[in-house]
Each structure stands twice: as structure tokens, then as C-alpha cells.
User: Which sequence fits this backbone?
């Protein structure tokens, strides 16, 4: 249990600050990989996952 509401608010403030820092750092990357592939509605990450799955399937001999 927290000893006071002030300590609880301080902990939430740190959590929000950390979340904001990471959101600012990863925001452009997330926007890029989830942007739609030109001319379609599916994102780049879907294309990457399909290519990776195909490569691993062929590499491991269709196990």
C-alpha cells in the first residue's frame, strides 16, 4: 500500500514520463512499419512477415 496519495501521483507521473519518452523515440519507426504499402491497404509489416515466413518455410524444407 502507498503511504499517501502524493506518492501514488508521483509514481504515475514517472510512468507517464517514461511512456512519453519511448513514444517520442519509437513513433516515427512505428508510423513507418504500419504505413500502408503504396497502392494497397495493408501495412509494410504484413509484407515483411509474409516474406520472412516464406523464406523460413523454404529454408527449413516445408516442415
Assistant:
Amino acid at each position: 500500500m502507498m503511504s499517501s496519495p502524493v506518492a501514488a501521483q508521483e509514481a504515475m507521473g514517472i510512468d507517464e514520463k517514461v511512456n512519453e519518452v519511448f513514444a517520442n523515440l519509437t513513433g516515427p519507426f512505428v508510423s513507418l512499419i504500419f504505413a500502408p504499402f503504396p497502392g494497397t491497404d495493408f501495412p509494410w509489416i504484413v509484407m515483411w512477415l509474409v516474406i520472412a515466413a516464406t523464406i523460413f518455410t523454404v529454408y527449413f524444407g516445408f516442415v
